[in-house]
Write a structure and sequence with these properties.
Layout: E1 2-7, H1 12-24, E2 28-31, H2 42-54, E3 60-65, H3 69-75, E4 83-85, H4 89-97, E5 103-107, H5 113-125, H6 132-144, E6 157-159, H7 163-173, H8 179-197, E7 203-209, E8 214-220, E9 225-231, H9 235-242, E10 249-250, E11 252-257, E12 264-270, E13 279-283, E14 286-287, H10 291-302, E15 307-311, E16 314-315, H11 317-326, E17 331-334, E18 336-337, E19 340-341, E20 347-348, H12 354-359
Helix pairs in contact: 1-5, 2-3, 4-5, 7-8, 8-9
Length: about 350
Amino acid sequence: MIIALGADHAGFKLKVFLSERLRELGFETLDYGAQSEAPYDYPDAAFAVAEAVSKGVARRGICVCGTGIGMAIAANKVRGVYAAACNNKEIAVISRKHNDTNVLTLGARIVSDETALDIVRTWIATEFEGERHESRIQKIHRKESDPGQRTNFQGKATICDHPLVQHKVSIIRNKNTSVKEFRELVQEIAGLMVYEVTRALPLAEIEVETPLEKTRAYTLEGKKLAIIPILRAGLGMVEGILRLIPNAVVGHIGLYRDPATLLPVEYYCKLPGDIAERDIYILDPMLATGGSASAALSLVKSRGGRRISLVSIIAAPEGISKVHEEHPDVEIFAAALDRHLNDHGYIIPGLGDAGDRLFGTK
């Protein structure tokens, strides 16, 4: 596990002590300042640690100031970060079990070095309980997805939190949902998301004649659409979208991960010849690390695509940050924003491997 550490001048010595002890325990640590006891503003360290956690550079973060309070306030301004000031083990345990905190803040003027280390070890070892606490965490995630809360990603990310979408997402998360039902629900969720995904399509005014009189009406203003699933899991979303926009053309992108470099490698790409003229929706049910999605976006752009959106069902903050770091012009749509990636790159809580569950190959 990689742990990011930061401190102001008041927390510098305790940060150094914790970093040394954590490395002895086998953890990899990243140091985001301060580098001495010279005056250093706590928000600078807190923001740096929080950004590392939000972007998936580090799994957890620890920030130290005089009391831990300022660090917690600052770190919580970064989307996807849940920080708590824990100056005893009991609070540290509850912060993990009930609140799924990913940043711990400590007060160097409140706790001794050994007490702080005891708190840190307890906090790292404690798992989130989920269950009744999961729905409460999800409410926080949805609030973060409000338009006014989208300041920590370079581009725009929209979470489609319609009750029907959220109901169906809860069913596909269930490990006991059958392949048939899972496949049908993924199509239904993709279809429902179309309403949000296509909200900005322009309309042209026309005149139609009803059985009673002529009236003004509206039609899509000549837009040409393309949907491009990333193989193989993206195929599960295609039919649901085509039911509502049947005139869209369908391209395909195939990528695999090179076992040596762990980078995405293209093995298939078939796009419409007029891709530059189309509004493009790339489909990938799980936006985890963001590597495949970013590679697909780069591939489409290299072929002339310009107006591109990414449509996923479950997204992790690390994936959103990766895509918007490399493609800040791309809008992301998802049905749920989950907590983080685990050490194997799976979204937590997620739903497992979408491809295996769609095609029954698990």
